Amino acid sequence: MAYRPTDFRKGLKVIYKGQPFEIIEVQMSLRGRGRSKYKTRLKNMRTGAVLENTFSEQEQLDEGEFSAVNMQYLYSDGEGFHFMDTDIYEQYAFSPEVIGDTKYFLREDEIYPILLLGKEPLNVDLPASVVLEVAETEPGVRGDTVSNATKAALTDTGLTVKVPLFVEIGDHIKVDTRTMDYLGRA
User: Residue 3: which pLDDT band, with cuts at 50, 70 and 90?
Assistant: First the structure.
């Protein structure tokens, strides 16, 4: 089966020119004589590159063999990040380039949904926010009460986040996985 541009929506995963893409944005424009054009922004799921393209309503894109599988994060070494499908005990490795900033939110032995194209792992689907522990930060100075004053805090996973002055070492904080911003105490 193939997708027509009338089926396009944000988050849809398709195969375009032999590569897996996720549709980030789609806009329809109606031309004269009833011909519609669909302007899209596509993100390559292997490289992260963003491509803009316009499709006519007659074009079709392959749907691909995408599937989501829950996998356990095992460990990382110099060559990649290793996950295991706990149902069939098959291991998959992600390159550091594919994982990118996701590495700051991975915890060993945790289960994460992994998007596969056939047998190839494409990405890790993180929740909108995670709880991390503060490993290092400067002590808050008493009387330093300028509104919205922040300081840098290093989490146990290696992520540096701007936090309010009252956050101390050992505190658990909630962090947005998309923007890497502090959301509050946990």
Answer: confident
